[in-house]
Design a protein that fits this description.
727 residues; alpha/beta; Immunoglobulin-like; Rossmann fold; Dimethylsulfoxide Reductase, domain 2; binds ligand MGD; binds iron/sulfur cluster; binds molybdenum atom
Length: 727
């Protein structure tokens, strides 16, 4: 996408950070009459501002979106680099040799061990086109379903929960529901810091009409989100499912439920009613560590109000019973008929900018494009036909999930691990085990936009990725709205879009026809056609239409008029299950996989700061953001601090069964007694290093495969002069 003349027009696009998916207008470095803005390295810099015409954000933007222009050219990976072994230095290799090497190793692996020895680990920060071509390459051309994404750590419990209860993935709500709801039930989400523009929309409404909406927050910590709440339930970590059953118990017995809806639109109510009968208010309040009156107050809201919107994210999904908790929440919506109507429904807030597009394109190891399943013979046949591969090409068993890919490397079962647009050596749990596993893998390929990420230290082949702003593509935000993101800056160095590299590898493997794409628009057209007739039908969309008419929500079947999509799913109370009815699910609460004990008496939870994005490859480059959060802090309750001899501002040693680290302490009563908090952002390459995930365990939800990244047992002690105590 080489530019010959200096651009003068603003580019309209979607913010590449969180799943709110705000519209941005990117202004070129030299706008008429102004001097050119440059970053610290002297490169001309684009400026971001909120796009008023974007229906999802109406001109609003948060500090990360507003400063994204400052991140785009600094510290980039410029050319392919290779080293035969981890002990050696990287040398430039050039694209031709890099891809020949990669294709040679794939062929060798296919011939000697079969497709199962190859795996790719991708990202919700891919564009839909990157996702789609990756599925075609791995699941179609290579014949392995070993494609998984960091969404496994993020959204997979929501995917599994929606599918189990409603018959399909797909959040049924839209952002306008924030303007209509009478109760906003925020559970396991720090919306103020992580989905700021949505949160501001809710808070503004509340300020203007304080009585029109009641905000409930369920979170063991006090956050900027809970500060805005009418009611904050600071439950003990991991007790959410008991809480939800406790609410259902009261709604059923004392407050009132929607028996018509249950009768007409749901199945399996009896088993659920029997289960929640045992979750009495006294039992639930004691387990959750909250006053019984708080539980009763929330149940009264659920039972008496119309327009209940629940919003959730990682406090719910990142749990070894994540799918069950999602199910428990959807149960409450079914019990009260609060779904498919304005202001009502179970609304999963997606984390990454295109986690939704990834699901639509089949970007998990059990999925195929169009919310299809690899285990479904008809689905496989449809996709094989569309892709032009012989019947039977797509394997019928789900591939390896993210953590299973690590275990496969550990067991010597992977020849080649291709990581793209994610930084697993910060974001996966049990990092020492991940490092040891990667060190066993003969070829680790990393497609990355920036130089020097933690994962690069354990990779052999680095492929420079053209990133958002340098490649065209589509992204879907949390409310099912798709925005076309144009290439408006020249590509950095020799970098190439991920989809282009995947397609190139496909052609070099001999699949000329299947990977003949010459533009992202062509890739999108093929994907869109394959979605026809599915819940997430976008067959009427194209890059052209999105550019011309602006962002559109799905479903958008062929022939749809722009802006005509139904804003909500399931408005007719019919669900995509075989019976057309939604299902109650009845799961016994299990609690945390690794509860506290005498040796490790505290529960560590790990989450986010407003001004940092994940592993900081981008946000650490923005001075304003760094100034907001100069270093990671361990939040600890004053009584715990006293008990363990820890002082505010001093260094503490935090130790789990797996590892230990040293970090500065913030004594605060925002955190619950018995819990501590660390941010996820600082990896071993950041200053100061704080490898929170070295402490975390990998036990996961058996249905979704999502690890319990929100809780592990730790002990804390004052850090000794020499650093960390032995562990
Ligand atoms: N600023 C910023 N915004 C982001 C991101 C970022 O890196 N930085 N990342 C994006 C991504 S990919 C994601 S997935 C989202 C994540 O968005 P969130 O899920 O809102 O963020 P987290 O901080 O991970 O966790 C949310 C809350 O879960 C709480 N929690 C912990 N344990 C429990 C529990 O047992 N029960 C309940 N009910 N709550 C619990 C934590 O105290 C925390 O306040 O943010 C997106 N937005
Ligand atoms: N304990 C704990 N662990 C967690 C979480 C938690 O709450 N607690 N949250 C989990 C969640 S929800 C998530 S989403 C993950 C996030 O974790 P990661 O996915 O590891 O985080 P990022 O820093 O966003 O990684 C994206 C990488 O892609 C690079 N990149 C950017 N654009 C492109 C591109 O176009 N192409 C390519 N090839 N590369 C690009 C960036 O430089 C960056 O290195 O962390 C998970 N880990
Ligand atoms: S709220 Fe999310 S999408 Fe909107 S500007 Fe901020 S980071 Fe970007
Ligand atoms: Mo995420």
């Amino acid at each position: 996408m080489a530019e010959t003349t200096a651009p003068t027009a603003a580019a309209r696009t979607q913010c590449p950070y969180c799943g709110v998916g705000c519209g941005l207008e990117m202004l070129p470095p030299a706008v008429a009459g102004q001097s050119v803005r440059r970053d610290a390295e002297g490169t001309p810099m684009w400026t971001a501002r909120g796009s008023r015409t974007h229906p999802s954000s109406l001109g609003q933007v948060c500090i990360k979106g507003a400063t994204v222009g400052e991140t785009l050219s600094r510290g980039r990976l410029s050319e392919p680099l290779y080293r035969p072994s981890l002990g050696e230095a990287f040398e430039p290799i050039g694209w031709e040799a890099a891809l020949e090497l990669l294709v040679g190793r794939i062929r060798h692996s296919l011939a000697t061990r079969g497709p199962g020895a190859i795996a790719m680990y991708g990202s919700g920060q891919f564009h839909t086109e990157d996702y789609y071509v990756a599925q075609k390459l791995l699941k179609g051309a290579l014949g392995t379903n070993n494609f998984d994404a960091n969404s496994r750590l993020c959204m997979s419990s929501a995917v599994a929960g929606y599918t189990r209860s409603l018959g399909s993935d797909g959040p049924p709500c839209c952002y306008e529901d924030l303007d209509h709801c009478s109760v906003a039930f925020l559970i396991g989400t720090n919306t103020a810091d992580c989905h700021p523009v949505l949160f501001q929309r809710l808070v503004k409404r509340k300020k203007r009409h304080p009585r029109s909406v009641t905000i409930v927050v369920v979170d063991p910590r006090a956050t900027d989100t809970s500060r805005a709440a009418d009611l904050h339930l600071a439950i003990a970590p991991g007790t959410d499912l008991a809480l939800l059953h406790g609410i259902a118990h009261l709604v059923l017995r004392e407050v009132g439920f929607d028996s018509d809806f249950i009768e007409e639109a749901t199945d399996d109510f009896a088993a659920y009613a029997e289960l929640v009968a045992a979750w009495t208010p006294a039992r639930v309040a004691a387990l959750c560590g909250i006053p019984e009156e708080q539980l009763r107050a929330v149940a009264r809201l659920w039972g008496s109000r119309r327009g209940i919107l629940s919003l959730w994210s990682m406090g719910v999904n990142q749990r070894r019973e994540g799918t069950a908790v999602v199910g428990g929440l959807i149960n409450l919506h079914l019990l009260t008929g609060e779904i498919g109507r304005p202001g009502a429904g179970p609304f999963s807030l997606t984390g990454q900018p295109n986690a939704m597009g990834g699901r639509e394109a089949g970007g998990l190891s059990h999925l195929l494009p169009g919310y299809r399943l690899v285990t479904n013979g008809e689905h496989r046949a449809e996709v094989e036909r569309a892709w032009g591969f012989a019947p039977g090409s797509i394997a019928s068993r789900p591939g390896l999930t993210a953590w299973q890919q690590v275990e496969a490397m550990e067991a010597g079962a992977l020849d080649l691990w291709w990581v793209a647009a994610t930084n697993p050596l910060v974001s996966l749990p049990n990092l020492e085990r991940v490092k040891a596993a990667m060190a066993r893998c003969p070829l680790v390929v990393l497609s990355e936009a920036y130089a020097g990420s933690e994962t690069a230290h354990y990779a052999h082949l680095l492929l420079p990725a053209a990133q958002w702003s340098e490649k065209a593509g589509a992204m879907t935000n949390s409310e099912r709205r798709i925005t076309h993101c144009p290439a408006f800056r020249p590509r950095h160095g020799q970098s190439r879009p991920d989809w282009e590299v995947f397609a190139d590898v496909g052609r070099r493997l001999g699949f000329e026809a299947q990977f003949s794409f010459t533009s992202a628009a062509e890739v999108y057209a093929e994907f869109a056609a394959l979605s026809a007739g599915r819940v997430c039908d976008v067959s009427g969309l194209s890059h052209d239409l999105l550019e011309r008419e602006g962002p559109q929500q799905w479903p958008f079947p062929t022939g749809s008029a722009p802006d005509s999509a139904s804003r909500r799913l399931y408005t007719d109370q019919r669900f995509p299950t075989p019976s057309g009815r939604a299902r109650f699910v009845a799961d016994q609460p299990l609690g945390l996989a690794e509860p506290s004990c005498d040796t490790y008496p505290l529960v560590l939870t790990v989450g986010r700061y407003l001004g940092q994005w994940h592993t900081m490859t981008r946000t650490a480059k923005v001075e304003r953001l760094q100034a907001m959060h100069p270093e990671p802090l361990l939040e600890i309750h004053p009584q715990d601090a006293e008990r363990y001899g820890i002082e505010d501002g001093a260094l503490a040693a935090v130790t789990s069964r797996r590892a230990g680290l040293t970090v500065r302490v913030q004594v605060t009563d925002r955190i619950r007694l018995g819990s501590v908090f660390l941010p996820m952002h600082w990896g071993f390459n950041q200053e100061p290093a704080c490898e929170a995930n070295a402490l975390m365990h990998e036990q996961a939800c058996p249905i979704s495969g999502q690890p319990e990244l929100k809780a592990t047992a730790v002990c804390v002690a004052p850090a000794t002069a020499g650093g960390h105590p032995a562990h």
